[in-house]
Amino acid sequence: MLRIITYFASSVIANAIILYVVSTYIPQLWFSISNPWGGNIYMVFAILGTLFWLFNGIIKSIIKVLTLPFAIITLGLSSVVINIAIIYVFGYVINTSSLGIQVLVGGLVQTLILSCVIAFAYFILKKVL
Question: Do the beta carbons of residue 49 and residue 12 sit within 8 Å?
């Protein structure tokens, strides 16, 4: 049970760190997050880290299993499309929710690069944590 809680906490922290770094230090990707609660940036990224874990960890895994035959035919290129779609859906859900947080997602090329950066950072942080 402790292992599950540790995995969840480290995943949420890793997602929050990734979203913070990408939105703050890489402005060329057109991924920005507006903070409605003033100075409480930790709460914003804790919420976003949890929701991004839900999208990236659970929903993306289910979609990858459902599209496995298509992934075999396209030699894995469909996973790039899934990553891009997950980022767009994540931004849409956050923007239409009642949280007050606004996520700006750029165009297709920026989102493609963003998905690669997030995948690489997620891989590195999961190895560290």
Answer: yes
pLDDT at 116: 86
Instruction: Look at residues 41, 34, 129 and name the one whose alpha carbon lies nearest to residue 91.
Output: 34
Rg (CA), the chain: 15
Given a cut of 80, whether residue 65 has pLDDT beyond it is yes
Contact 43, 12 (CB under 8 A): no
User: Exposure string (b/e) for 35-57, b if CB count within 10 Å is 16 or more?
Assistant: eeeeeeeeebbebbbebbbbbbe
* Range 75-103 average pLDDT: 86
Q: Residue holding tokens 């949420």? A: 12
| Distance (Å, whole) CA 105 – CA 89 | 10
pLDDT at 88 over 80: yes
Q: Is the dihedral of CA 60, 66, 71, 74 positive or negative?
A: negative
Looking at residue 97, the DSSP 8-state letter turns out to be S
Phi (first) and psi of residue 102, to 5 degrees: -115, 130
